[in-house]
Amino acid sequence: MEYRQLGNSGLKVPLLSFGTGTFGGANEFFKSWGSSDIKEATRLIDICLEAGINMFDSADIYSNGVAEEILGKAITGRRDKVLISTKATFRMGTGPNDLGSSRIYLLKAVDASLKRLGTDYIDIFQLHGFDFMTPVEETLSTLGDLVRSGKIRYIGCSNFSGWHLMKSLAASEKYRLPRYVAHQAYYSIIGREYEQELLPLALDQKVGAIVWSPLGWGRLTGKIKQGQPLPKVSRLHVTGNVGPQVSDEYLFRVIDAIESVAKECEKTIPQIALNWLFHKPTVSSVIIGARDEEQLRQNISSFGWNLSAAQMAKLDAASAIEPIYPYWHQRDFIKDRNV
């Protein structure tokens, strides 16, 4: 396994990490992702560790905490061999302070995650979203207290806009507070909006991308075929109307290009889609998920070989999107400056 620096930190993380959204299946939404119990989760983690994948990503809202509980039990006796990444911000109770990035909530959320995980520290703690109601200084100073207490070691964010992230980084510098070293973001060959603002920002500020849903919200499994109904087992039956949207015309144009490259490489559609991400700037780790051993081993096999420059160019061209304003306006000037 390749290990990459996580942003502007001294921490190295595996290029592939494992997402635990498939653990538990405690409600219909997460059941559509998977429902691994402790035994199944332990076996999947065994396979990951054998392949050198030692980082496991979770969140308090995954099956309402059950995913963290299963992860904690599945790594019993080998906490020192793994990196745990988890997240909080979204609602975990009925009270007015049972969500967000305020001091009162983050202190409570971290303690609750530690208890569910059965550990006394979290390697990477990330805000799951940006809280407009809480000053970034309050959030960052609270995270600083948690770092100093030893409860968390590195901090990151997830699903931030460019200005959210830059405002936070500026506050960290101004007040000498801990700095986000990771941004867990949606990025895939059929979801390239990350490249318009967040990627340049991450390059400039040295923030590592931890990529979620690299297979386009389950659309790049190789089972989605033009003119055919969804396969019987697909989370899109439940989640297709939420999360990132994509037109059929664009989706199948990209899939056609992926299939062509897959034949050349003798690989699968998911393996091509994952390997494409490995070549992209700022990517520190790509989160893969799996319902079962076969799916996990297939995803792990996306590593250990490389797409050619010509194949990358073909995939880039097929999946190119017209940038929104002001990025289309800036495009020609950027090209001119590179001459």
Note down, in words, how this protein is organized.
With 339 residues, the protein is α/β, with parallel strands linked by helices. It has one domain (3-337): TIM Barrel (Alpha-Beta Barrel). The protein has helices at 28-31, 38-50, 66-74, 103-117, 136-149, 162-175, 198-205, 236-239, 248-265, 269-278, 293-300, 309-319, 327-337; strands at 3-5, 12-14, 16-19, 55-57, 83-88, 122-127, 152-158, 182-186, 208-212, 283-288. The strands form two sheets. The chain has an eight-stranded parallel beta barrel with strand order 3-4-5-6-7-8-9-10, surrounded by five helices. A two-stranded antiparallel sheet has the order 1-2. Helix 3 packs across helix 4 (103-117) and helix 4 (103-117) packs parallel to helix 5 (136-149). The two termini are 37 Å apart.
Provide tags for this entry.
single chain; 339 residues; alpha/beta; TIM Barrel; 8-stranded parallel β-barrel; two-stranded antiparallel sheet; 13 helices; 10 strands; 41% helix
